[in-house]
Each structure stands twice: as structure tokens, then as C-alpha cells.
Amino acid sequence: MRGRFTLRPSVMADLPFQIHVEFPTATPLKAPFEVRGWIASSRPVLAVGNGGGEGEWLELKPRPDVAEARPDSPHAVGFRGWVGSGALDGDALLLLVRCGERKHRVTLPLDPVQPPPDHLQVRQVGSVWGANFYPAGRQIFDQIADAFAQVKHPLTAAERVLDFGCGCGRVLRSFGEVNHTGEIWGCDIDGESIAWNETNLAELARFYANPSEPPTRWEDGFFSAIYTVSVFTHLPEELQMAWVRELHRLLSAGGVLVASLHGEHYWQRDPAVAAEVAQRGFAYRTGEATAGLPEFYMVAYHSIEYIRQNWGRYFEVLAHLPAYIAGAHDAVVLRRRADS
Fold this sequence. Notes:
This protein is of the alpha/beta class and 340 residues long. The chain contains 8 helices and 16 strands. The chain folds into 2 domains: 93 residues, Immunoglobulin-like; 219 residues, Rossmann fold, CATH 3.40.50.150. It is 23% helix and 32% strand. The strands form 4 sheets. A 7-stranded mixed β-sheet has the order 10-9-8-11-12-16-15, sandwiched between helices. A 4-stranded antiparallel β-sheet has the order 1-2-5-4. The protein has a 3-stranded antiparallel β-sheet with strand order 3-6-7, with no helix packed on it.
């Protein structure tokens, strides 16, 4: 975390002001994105906006804390608002500052988003996505957040959130770009990915390497919101039902779970799988194991009727969203039932 009044090293000394960006510190995953910071100036600051186009201006408010810390700069203002992609030039933020009678275009370096090592990407998504790893995760994050919003259980307002099967933070990383009030947790059976998260994403969340079979270490009702992407799509039936019961235990009363599944978008591609899903609602297929993951981690398929019948003892199905996650996985939105 940078000191509150530490100027970013790219600020030019000949500017008639000092500028500090509090957020973002890393290159945003999507636009528009929020910008906030402050300027301390010897002249009145009239406007701050998108340095790639003058159509987006930020809100200005006095910053007495900055003025007190910098008595040599009598004009101290904070800026905050949203800007589009024109405000980005690679890993730099472009701002336009109107100070006195002049306009100044300022280039402020941002920390580049570093994707996880290739082998950890492969464990989570099956291939190397490189620079698109976290931007693609941001798209999924927005879809998950929208699924929670549809049932009036906003993800960003939850007291505690769990990313179950977080891998190396593909989705969880996006919490660094949104305002949220709760505590964020991620867990995964892959201890190497969890260790990478603890080194690289510790400012965003707390992490736990969970066992391949329940129980986990948390107390009953610890979380008010849980989401899981590409986990139940890979577990054999008996093991996934054990985890359904465990997630039920971990959710507080009225808590919501959003889970991704291989629905018709997937199982209709294979006539034998489609026939099995039509008959019993579930199919599981084995193949070549992924290096670093257990041998049971293969491919599973579900029908929504199966979810209602088999998961329904533990969860009420609030919504079924076919091919919703990244245009591929189904999403089911579930509310925890009271203990029976």
C-alpha cells in the first residue's frame, strides 16, 4: 500500500501542482473504471478529467487533510468519478487537469496486471490465457454479481463472500476494482495456487487450501454469499453431493449460492452423454488428468431437474440461467434452506 501522501514517481517536477492517484493503482481490467485521488496546487484547480478526451470530467471536492499536510499548496482538492478506455495508454492513466488558465495532460504509471504462471492458468482454465486471464475473469465476475442482484442479494454488500474453487484468483481478482463492504475469502484444493494468491492477492482477500473432501475449517453459517465457477462441472456425483452439504453448512440463514454447471450447451454435443442426462439428470466422464489436480477431477454434466431433485433438500432454486457464464456454463442461483 502506498503512503497516503506519496507522489507517484512519474509526476513531472515542473507542473504547478502535485497529483496523487489513490485508485486505481493497477491497470483496470475493464472500462469504464473509477478514478479517485487528490491534487495539491499553488493555483485553483478548475477541473480534472479524462486525458484521452475532454468529455468525461470528475467530481471535485475540498481535501482539508491534504491542505493540512501541504501548507505550501493552498489549493487542495480531491477528484473522483468514472472514465472510459481513452484514459488508458497501456499501463498508464491519462488525466487532463485545468489549473488556473492552463490545461495540463498528465501521464501516471499504473502497476501492470501480472497473470499467474502458465501452469497455474492451465490448472484453472485448461490452457494459457496470458494477459486475458484476469480480464476474462472480470467478465465472469460481472455475470456472477448480476446473478446475485437478480435475486436481490447483492454480492458486494455481503458480509462474507467465498469464492469456492478460486484457483489463482481469476474471478476473485475483480473485487479489487469494485466497491464492496464485506470480507472476501478464496479456497481451493490446489495449495500451489493458494500460495500464489497469498503472495500476490493478499490485499484483496484471505485464502485457504481446503481438503479434497469436506469438512472445511469454517464454522456453521460463516458466509452470507458463496459462488463457485467450474468446480461442480468436474466432480463425481458422491463427492459433489458431499460438497453441496458442506456449502449448505457454511452459508448463513437466507444465504445465496451461485454455481456454474455443464448444462445442455455442453451435454447436447455428445449423444451418449445427452441420453444419460435425459435418463437420470447427471453424467460423469473420465479422461486424461490435468497435471497438479486429483484424478477424480474430470467432467460432470447436470440437468436443472437433477439440481431441483437432488440439491433441493438443501437449497431452493431461485433462478436457472442457461449458458450464462462466459456464454457457456449454466448458472444456478440457490438460497439456503433451513436445517431439516
